[in-house]
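Exercise 3.2. Students should predict the tertiary structure of the chain below and write it as structure tokens, then compare their answer with the key that follows.

Predict this chain's 3D structure.
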Amino acid sequence: MNSVEGSSKLPATIAKPPVAVRVLCLGNDLLADDSLGIAFAEQFQQLAPADVEVVSTPESGFHLLDYVLNVQRLVVVDTVLTGAAAPGTIYAFYDHELQGVPGSSPHYVGLNETLALARQLDLKVAEEVVFLAVEACDCKTLGGEMHPAVAAAIPRLLTMVQEMMRDG
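Answer key:
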């Protein structure tokens, strides 16, 4: 069931049988530190148990809806740019721990808004959503290199996700 998919192939999760665990790796390999999710997916693909689906995509917003459906446990790997910690810092949290962003715009829809809408519509959304976000330094430089501290977080992320898979 392991598969790394790009934006050209949306999974037809509604037609698929439910997946126990999906690791959703977000990022854009053209944008410096934002490429972390893609790089992680390529490496984790080699280590993932056969019953874990690995998906890699640069998509955002409602385009992520298919990825959050028909799965019991969703692990999201992405970067975040808060400026609150050093690049490479890993944050781990559940989606229910996030507070709504004040002043949200109907013109921007993120993964959290997509999850909330899916739940409000009673769609079969992931029962458990875990975010692993790595503090980035630069997610805007086109063709830029990943910051060394951000790249150094990948082995730690691999260990964390492997432990999550073992612990159930």
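Discussion points: The CA atoms of residues 27 and 36 lie 6 Å apart. Residues 19-167 form a domain with the Rossmann fold fold (CATH 3.40.50.1450).
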